[in-house]
Amino acid sequence: MGDLDKARDHFHSSREVFRANGVRRGEGMALLSLGEHARLIGDFDAAVSMGSDAVQVFIEIDDAWSEAWGALPLAKSITELSRGREAAELLVRASRTFDGFKDRRSLAMSSDLLGDVHHQLGETATAADHWLYAAEIYESLGEDTLGEESRTKARRFE
Question: Known InterPro entries for this protein (predicted)?
C-alpha cells in the first residue's frame, strides 16, 4: 500500500510474535522483510545485517530452502555495497539448492540475479549467459514476461 513506516512496524511486530512463540522460521522471514525494507529505503548496511541474521536463523533450523531463499534479497543488498563476488557466491549456492529441490522458478530468479551481479562486476558475457538461462526457465514455466525481461538484458551484450 506504499506506507513503508507502517510496513516496518508490522514486520517488527510479527518478528516479536514469532520470537515469543518460538517460531524460528517465521522470525527469519520477518527479518528478511525488515532487510528488504531497509534496502528499499537505501540503508544497505542494515539490510545486509538483517538479511544475514535471517539466513543464520534458517541455517540454525536446518532449512536449506529458506536459507537459499534468504540469499536472494541478501545478495541484492550485498551488491549495493559493491561486494559482488560475495553476492555471486551466495547466489551460486542458492541456485544449487533450488536445483536440488527442483524449484525451477526460484532457480530462474537466482540466475537472473547472478546475471545482474556479473554485469555489475563487468563480466558481461557471464551476465548474459545467466540471463539467458533464466529466460529459458521462465519461458518453460509459461512466465513469458519474466523471460522476455531476462532476454532483453542479455541482448544488450550480443
Answer: TPR-like_helical_dom_sf
Q: How many CA atoms lie within 13 A of 68 on its CB side?
A: 21
Burial class (CB in 10 A: 0-12, 13-18, 19+), 7: middle
Work out the end-to-end distance of the chain between its first and last CA atoms, rounded to an integer number of angstroms. 39
Position 79 pLDDT exceeds 90: yes
Q: Are 73 and 49 in contact (CB under 8 A)?
A: no
Q: Which CATH superfamily is domain 1-81 in?
A: Tetratricopeptide repeat domain (1.25.40.10)
Q: Which residue shows C-alpha cell 528499499?
A: 40
Q: Do domains 1-81 and 84-158 have the same CATH topology?
A: yes
Quote the cell numbers at residue 20: 515469543
Q: What is the DSSP letter of 103?
A: -
Amino acid making up residue 34: L
Is the pTM higher than 0.70? yes
Q: What ranges do the domains of the chain cover?
A: 1-81, 84-158
Measuring CA to CA, how many Å separate 45 from each of 24, 48, 53, 81, 153?
23, 5, 12, 8, 28
pLDDT for the residue numbered 1? 66
Residues 11-55 have pLDDT tens digits of 888 989 999 999 999 999 999 999 999 999 999 999 999 999 999
